[in-house]
Amino acid sequence: MSRSPMVVRTVPALRRAVDGLRARKAAVALVPTMGALHDGHVSLVRLAKRRAQKVIVSIFVNPTQFAPTEDFGSYPRTWKADIAKLAAEKVDLIWNPDVKAMYPDGFATRIVPEGPAVAGLEDRFRPHFFGGVATVVGKLFTQVRPDVAIFGEKDFQQLRVVTQMARDLDLGVRVVGSRTVRERDGLAMSSRNVYLSPDERQTAITLYRAMKESARRLKAGDAFESAMAAGRELVTGAGFALDYFEARHAETLAPVSSIKDGPLRILVAAKLGKTRLIDNIGV
Question: Is the pLDDT of residue 159 over 70?
C-alpha cells in the first residue's frame, strides 16, 4: 500500500513544507484541483512528475467561482478516494486549505482578468467565473511558489486566462497545458460527469462527435459557417441546450472566419438535463 502524502491546511505549514521540498534545490510542480479526482487529474500529476522533482496537488473547492445558482454545495467531494489516487502516484504534498484559510475575514482583494477572460465564451454565461479562478490561482501561485503549474486543456479558456495572468503579473510560474483525457467513446473526463443519467451519458458523446465533424469539414475546405453549423445541428439535435459552439484562434481566443486565420480551436458548452458540459479540440 502506498504511503499517504503529507497534507497541510494552513499557509505557515505549507511554507515550511515547501521549504523542505526545496532543500536540495528541487524544482516544484503544482497541480491545482477541486478534488473529485479522475484519470484526467492523474494524467496532470504524471505530467507534473515529468516536469519537476517534487509535486504538490492542491484540493480546494473554490466558492468564488460558483454563482449562487450553481453547484458549489453539491459539487462532488471524494476525499478518501482522492488521497488514495494521489498516494498511488507518490505525490509529495497535498495543500488542502479551508475557505477561512484562503479567504480570511476582511479579505478584500480580487484579480479581474481581461484578454482571453472576456472572449465571449464561458464569460458570457458565467461572468463571475474567471475573476474567481484568477484570484484563487493567483493565491495558489504565491502560496506554493511553484516552478511549473499543470492545467488540463479541457478547460481551455481557463488555461489561456491563467497563462496570461502568470505572464502579466510576473509570477515566475510556467503554466503547462495537458491534453484532455477521454473515455473510450470520446467523452471528456470531468468531475461533473457523475451528474449524468445513464441515457444522458450515452448522449453526451455527441459533443465530441460534433466537434470532430466540424473540424473534418473545415479541413476538407467546406465553407466556414456551414462547417460550424453542421456541428451545432448535431448538438442541438441530440437534445442539448447549446450555449456556444465556436471556432476561435487557439492562442488569443479571438473570433475567426476562416481556417487560414491561424491555429484554430473548436470550443463547446451545452447543457444536457441539469448537467452543463464543456469541451474543445484543436483543428
Answer: yes
Q: How confident is the model at residue 4 (pLDDT cuts 50, 70, 90)?
A: confident
Between CA 47 and CA 31 the distance in angstroms is 10
CB 54 within 8 A of CB 31: no
Average pLDDT of the chain?
Answer: 96
Alpha carbon of 62 to those of 57, 131, 164: distances in Å?
15, 11, 20
d(CA 137, CA 142): 9
Q: Give the integer Cα–Cα distance in Å for 130 and 136.
A: 10
Check whether domain 191-282 has CATH 3.30.1300.10, yes or no:
yes
The residues annotated with a catalytic role in the active site are 41
Other beta carbons within 10 Å of 237: 10
Distance CA 46, CA 85 (A): 12
Its CATH class, for the domain covering 6-178, is alpha beta
Q: Where are the alpha helices (DSSP H) in 71-188?
A: 79-88, 99-102, 122-125, 129-144, 156-168
Q: Cell digits for 101?
A: 484559510
**1 confidence band (pLDDT: 50, 70, 90):** low
